[in-house]
Design goal:
The protein contains 19 helices and 2 strands. By secondary structure, the protein is mainly alpha-helical. Strands 1-2 form a two-stranded antiparallel sheet. A hairpin with a 5-residue loop joins strand 1 and strand 2. Helix 7 runs parallel beside helix 9 and helix 18 packs antiparallel against helix 19. The termini are far apart.
Length: about 375
């Protein structure tokens, strides 16, 4: 019967009128004869009316929906959930169930089903719909809920899901920054640890995107509040994630962060330990953090910091610091810089130049000495 079906499908008579269903069955029979596997049913998405559409159309599908108000206001909701665990490890089922119950109050049933569907095409449609929604309206009143949903989507291993979720997250953070607002403490606790722990993705393009998102968080949350989260991931089992966290820490270091970090021996030990790690990328990134600290510390404090490193690592940190200081020497020559104890370097002396000399490095050639 299969042979007959395949021959009839391959050479139809001019007057043959085969139904769509019959043609599909005939084609499937021909594939079976040839030893080929039929295409997966999951490769076809659904329109809002339930009709099948091609995969390319399913990915571009944008559902329109109204965004309602949850019954519990944002402040009360975040106060109640302040100790609720939300990644980077598996989220407890009861917490995920609570998120679903809250979302049922905010969106229609069709959108809700797409957001929490097991089908990739419906998930992509939901993410694309949210990307459109973020560009249209402010999501401030449900920002914590959207961040929970997006970070939960990152438990999916599909690359397309990751890219779409990160696109929505980037649009959300940009919306917060453009409004001059800040993430609440709870919102930062939801998104930052998940980004940091997953930033060591094995696809370089996704790693770059996640590092860019971490830089975005520096605009929408206080750097001192981000410091404990960044330091915690320096000890991650994933060396790529730890290296990404070190690069994010280098971006976050300013004068206040540098002083707090140096005064905490426990926190500073995490950076120094990472600088001695066997992983080359983590070692290099942590050494760069130490070099960036030199921009905000006096020579005595910086040398004391280096004394805790091995001699070979001290030289690498001094060289990296000299390069950074050489680029900023012209700006800092006549500017007093507060020391770790709050004492200013006397005006007329160059703190940057003194640290270069203390590091045993000369000013770059071609730069006039002050």
């Amino acid at each position: 019967r299969l042979s007959a079906a395949s021959s009839s499908a391959a050479s139809p008579t001019p007057r043959a009128k085969t139904s769509l269903y019959g043609a599909v069955r005939a084609a499937g029979a021909a594939d079976a004869v040839a030893g080929l596997r039929p295409p997966r049913a999951a490769s076809v998405g659904l329109t809002p009316r339930g009709l099948p559409v091609p995969p390319s159309t399913a990915r571009e599908l944008c559902l329109t929906f109204e965004l309602g108000e949850p019954k519990l206001p944002k402040q009360a909701r975040q106060q109640r959930e302040r100790c609720q665990y939300w990644g980077p490890d598996q989220v407890p089922a009861e917490f995920l169930g609570g998120l679903k119950d809250t979302w049922r109050q905010c969106v229609d049933e069709r959108t809700f089903r797409a957001m929490f569907s097991d089908r990739m095409e419906e998930q992509l449609a939901a993410l694309q719909s949210w990307k459109c929604k973020v560009q249209e309206v402010t999501c401030e009143h449900v920002l914590d809920l959207v961040l929970k949903w997006l970070t939960w989507m990152l438990f999916n291993t599909n690359t397309q899901i990751w890219k779409a979720a990160l696109d929505v997250l980037a649009a959300l953070l940009e919306q917060v920054r453009a409004a001059g607002a800040q993430l609440t403490e709870r919102e930062a606790q939801i998104v930052v640890p998940n980004l940091l722990e997953r930033s060591g993705h094995n696809i370089p393009a996704i790693r770059d995107t996640m590092e860019a998102l971490l830089r975005q968080t520096l605009w929408v949350h206080p750097r001192l509040a981000l410091l404990p989260m960044l330091l915690r991931v320096l000890s991650s089992k994933s060396k790529r994630s730890a290296a990404c966290a070190a690069r994010a820490l280098a971006e976050a270091v300013d004068k206040q962060v540098a002083i707090v970090l140096v005064r905490s021996q426990k926190d500073l030990a995490l950076v120094l330990k990472a600088a001695e790690d066997k992983d080359a990328d983590l070692k290099r990134s942590a050494t760069h953090v130490i070099a960036v600290l030199s921009l905000h510390l006096d020579a005595q404090t910086f040398n004391k910091l280096l004394s805790a490193l091995k001699p070979s690592l001290q030289q690498a940190a001094r060289s990296a610091a000299a390069k950074l200081l050489g680029g900023q020497g012209a700006m800092s020559m006549a500017t007093p810089r507060p020391s770790i104890d709050g004492l200013a370097t006397p005006r007329g002396t160059s703190d940057a130049a003194s640290r270069i000399r203390a590091a045993g490095a000369a000013l770059p050639s071609g730069r006039p000495a002050s």
